[in-house]
Amino acid sequence: xxxxxxTPGVADSLxxxxxxxxxxxxxxxxxxEALAVGICGTDHEIIAGQYGEAPPGERRLxxxxxxxxxxxxxxxxxxxxxxxxxxIVRHPDPVPxxxxxxxxxxxxxxxxxxxxxxxxxxxxxxxxxxLQPRFAVPLDRSLGEVGMLxxxxxxxxxxxxxxxxxxxxAEWQPRTVLVTGAGPIGLLAxxxxxxxxxxxxxxxxxxxxxxxxLARALGATYHSTQVDDLDFDPDVVIECTGAPKVVLDVMxxxxxxxxxxxxxxxxxxxxxxFDAGALNRxxxxxxxxxxxxxxxxxxxxxxxxxxxRRADPLWLGSLISRRVPVSGYADAYVPGPNDIKVVLEFAx
Length: 348
Ligand SMILES: [Zn+2]
Prior knowledge:
- The chain has helices at 41-47, 98-101, 150-167, 184-195, 211-217, 244-253, 276-285, 298-310, 313-318, 329-332; strands spanning 3-6, 15-17, 30-39, 61-62, 66-73, 84-87, 90-91, 114-116, 120-121, 128-131, 136-139, 176-180, 199-203, 221-223, 236-239, 259-262, 289-292, 320-325, 341-345.
- It contains ten helices and 19 strands.
- Helix 3 packs across helix 4 (184-195) and helix 3 (150-167) crosses helix 8 (298-310).
- The strands form four sheets. Strands 3, 5, 6, 10, 11, 18 and 19 form a seven-stranded mixed sheet that branches.
- The protein is of the alpha/beta class.
- The site of zinc ion has 10 residues, from helix 2.
């Protein structure tokens, strides 16, 4: 069968192979026909040779961690043939660490977890794949065009879950959320903020293209200013840019008892002048919290599936800027100037 693969560590080794073996029975009892995979920055980093690890004993890695498929067979009876399903990306480490031992593999302590399409497990950019029931997340049938957004939504579902857990350390009545960065993660974070009834503000450099309208369609206020120029202090910040100046600015901008979730990954290596003492004063004297968040566990995937089910399918569809058939795979992996989310389609 066909699969989109790379040789990890070798730049530009992206290749559509025709002779990928059928998924091994050990991958799980549920056999799934691929419908589509979403493409993100992690895929671009893997293709650039900066990241990624092939399964043990193999040279190539099948790409794809933002999955959507249709169940072909499930002898366990967990799912029915025809059901829409997505595969959870991360699997717990084999030790396991205390977190992986209780299903919180998103909080793995030893780094020995594996990830489909990223780290030592084949990805979902192949015509068929298999899942164990505990890594199979069913999707409402209304999500047949957009269900590959579940993986990025699981990331923001975890971010919101942890914001709320931290918030409840004391009386907590948030009213405003600032989301920095209006890519797929930022826009989905804004969606989940609007579903919570908060006043949502989205900040991004873009003044043209689809981002301002996508934010406004959620009822959010769109800003293309500096963080310092905002005329309010947000109760919650979901930082999705990883841009050093934005990261530092939002930590200083949060309201008293504010919570800042850092969900963007900086590239590092660039330094800027910064008054660490002033930041310390702001955090201590206002009881503020800054925390990092990555990945998601089963509970977050289920929360994300519910959030997508409640969202406007037309808005979700408008996040997808390009749908590319698998035969045009090379094109799909080249970022375009106005791309939000690019999707590679298998069976259509
Ligand atoms: Zn672990």
